């Protein structure tokens, strides 16, 4: 199991997850907040032939996650996995006659398991100001990759689902002091720091400190705010929480994304 980022942040997100199941390579794209051309360019930079993708998974309807999904899925003929709430709220597929094939994620008690060509994918509901947002945990039987961005706080439910991971892509959206000092309007500040907004560095660090890390080898800080965070702050806050060195953490960049990393 390995993964790479096409870019991460409020201007657009996309994460590639690739698993080798027997003779088959399963390659999924989680979210696509980039336009078609931009997305194809970013895929090319990671050495991925767009025609080799198996599916697109969508976490929620915010434009930094769905902006390019409909056109890309149609262009490549890919199925799109998403909750009904996300499909409705995004409005992307309403009235489309020949849209992409939609496969609905139906959570029960906040989780759903999807099997895609032998790759197990758990969808986990998260507290975020969207209609029916989910995040994903990927498991190929050896490695277990948790992807967790766009949530206002770490609920008990989330904490339970993100255990026993070998790799974690974790939202470190903002530094609370930088957010408080920023030029953002008060309402936006409240939204971001609220229970259904985005994870601060400190909340991310708290999750990291609380999970079982015995198998955890790779941690990537993601969805950093350009205005209200820095790579150094995100890294050092995570590092301090678990007594590690900041050098041990990766950061998924808005422009450059992140190169392929093994999920172990
Ligand atoms: Zn987002
Ligand atoms: Zn969002």
Which spans have pLDDT < 50 for at least 5 consecutive residues? none
Described by the principal axes of the CA atoms, the overall outline is globular
Rg is 17 Å
Count of beta strands: 14
Helix-residue proportion: 25-40%
Number of helices: 9
Mean pLDDT: 96
Q: Main beta sheet: strand number and arrangement?
A: 7 strands, mixed
Ions, cofactors, ligands: which are bound?
zinc ion
SSE string: EEEHEHHEHEEEEEHEHHHEHEE
Percent of sequence in beta strands: 25-35%
Structural class: alpha/beta
Provide the spatial order of strands within the biggest beta sheet.
Answer: 6-5-4-3-2-1-14
**What separation lies between the terminal Cα atoms?**
8 Å
The oligomeric state of the chains shown is single chain
If you had to describe this structure to a student in words, what would you say it looks like?
The protein is of the alpha/beta class and 264 residues long. It contains 9 helices and 14 strands. The strands form 2 sheets. Strands 6-5-4-3-2-1-14 form a 7-stranded mixed β-sheet. A 7-stranded mixed β-sheet has the order 7-8-9-10-11-12-13. β1 (2-7) and β2 (14-21) form a beta hairpin. α8 (201-210) runs parallel beside α9 (231-242). The protein starts with a strand and ends with a strand.
Quick recap of the structure?
This protein is of the alpha/beta class.
Descriptors:
single chain; 264 residues; alpha/beta; 7-stranded mixed β-sheet; 9 helices; 27% helix; 28% strand; globular
SSE arrangement:
Elements: E1 2-7, E2 14-21, E3 24-30, H1 36-45, E4 55-57, H2 63-66, H3 69-76, E5 80-83, H4 84-90, E6 102-105, E7 111-116, E8 119-125, E9 134-139, E10 144-148, H5 156-161, E11 167-171, H6 176-181, H7 186-193, H8 201-210, E12 218-222, H9 231-242, E13 249-251, E14 258-262
Parallel strand pairs: 3-4, 4-5, 5-6, 10-11, 11-12, 12-13
Antiparallel strand pairs: 1-2, 1-14, 2-3, 7-8, 8-9, 9-10
Helix pairs in contact: 8-9
Residues 10, 13, 62, 64-65, 150, 223 line the site of one zinc ion.
């Amino acid at each position: 199991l390995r993964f790479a980022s096409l870019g991460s942040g409020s201007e657009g997100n996309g994460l590639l997850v690739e698993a080798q199941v027997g003779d088959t390579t399963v390659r999924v794209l989680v979210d696509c907040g980039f336009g078609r051309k931009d997305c194809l360019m970013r895929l090319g930079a990671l050495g991925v032939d767009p025609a080799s993708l198996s599916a697109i998974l969508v976490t929620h309807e915010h434009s930094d996650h769905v902006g390019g999904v409909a056109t890309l899925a149609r262009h490549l003929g890919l199925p799109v996995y998403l909750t009904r709430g996300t499909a409705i709220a995004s409005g992307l597929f309403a009235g489309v006659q020949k849209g992409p094939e939609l496969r609905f994620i139906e959570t029960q008690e906040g989780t759903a398991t999807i099997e895609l060509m032998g790759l197990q994918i758990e969808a986990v509901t998260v507290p975020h100001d969207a209609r029916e947002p989910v995040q994903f945990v990927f498991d190929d039987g050896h490695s277990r990759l948790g992807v967790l961005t766009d949530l206002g706080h770490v609920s008990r439910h989330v904490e339970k689902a993100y255990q026993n991971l070998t790799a974690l892509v974790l939202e470190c959206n903002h530094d609370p002091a930088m957010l408080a000092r920023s030029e953002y309007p008060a309402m936006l500040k409240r939204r971001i720091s609220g229970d259904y907004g985005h994870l601060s560095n400190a909340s991310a660090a708290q999750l990291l400190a609380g999970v079982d890390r015995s198998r955890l080898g790779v941690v990537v800080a993601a969805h950093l705010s350009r205005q209200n965070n820095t790579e150094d702050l995100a890294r050092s806050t995570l590092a301090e929480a678990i007594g590690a060195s900041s050098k041990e953490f990766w950061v998924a960049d808005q422009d450059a994304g992140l190169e392929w990393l093994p999920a172990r």
